Amino acid sequence: xxxxxxxxxxxxxxxLMGVSSEILGKACQLxxxxxxxxxxxxxxxKVEGLAKELIAYGAGKVYLVEDPLLRLYQSDLYTTVISxxxxxxxxxxxxxxxxxxxxxxxxxxxxxxxxxxTAHCVDLTIEEVKNKSLLVAAIxxxxxxxxxxxxxxxxxxxMATVKAGMMEKPSKDEKRQGQIVREKFELKPAxxxxxxxxxxxxxxxxxxxxEAETVVSVGWGVQSAANLNLAKEIAGLLRAAWAGTRPAxxxxxxxxxxMIGQSGKLVSPKLFISLGASGAMAYAVGFLKSKVxxxxxxxxxxxxxxxxxxGIVADLxxxxxxxxxxxxxxVS
Length: 332
Fold this sequence. Notes:
Shape: elongated
Oligomer: single chain
Helix content: 25-40%
Distance between the termini: 65 Å
Low-confidence stretches: none
Strand order of the largest sheet: 7-11-6-1-4-5-12
CATH superfamily of the largest domain: HUPs
Mean pLDDT: 90
């Protein structure tokens, strides 16, 4: 057993994805608890510079596989290469980002190496379970009403995916030393059942959620078009990013890419304003790192009041009109 904690370092066009450095920071914490090393798996073409960046973020070792066929993400080849690396070196833990690519790759690798996978984790810890030090992954369960802890006691590696923004990004130290291990594979185009020809990233419309200092998020409790328009007006006055819950997305009030929560975006603005959302755990994990949370809901027993900094029990149809007027005067 190699007993290393691994991450898969996702890169696009020679640019390291932010979630990779975030999960690398968590991997370092887990490895320290276990008393083992930390390694990153990096695939691509001419990406040795990223290997050095990963070492600067804390990787003691980088398993580097370079090939022109790996320049873009190719599901079959990436699955084969990472699975073979796992079989060669037998890591204890393998973490991946829960990006669109990571969510395709992680289950394919888990199936290939015959292990379990816990997806969309909100926390990762090392705990003693039946006299074994195991990776324990926490995810919201049963409709977001409770936090479920999951462990994989027998199969290896223990695998988990984590969304961007859930873990703290580690500090970067350019003087940090590490080892780059070049791994060789004979890759052939014929091995690809489907081939990625191009990857296009859509630019967000308006203020990107991840960069916004203020976010206004609406839930099912908004109900009327009048309330929705007032909420949008308030967001505009505050120059805030517009977001919402799954029910708000389903009703067409908010685009899917602006959904907050376990299955959506994770944000950490200076001010998060939640309007008409009860605060199910699957939603709450998306904004818990905000500096200040202001919540409005007409149900005094709503879970969101247990996690907000400022709570207002009110009917939105009565609160939003004067609130909008106050904001108008404040910014005029």
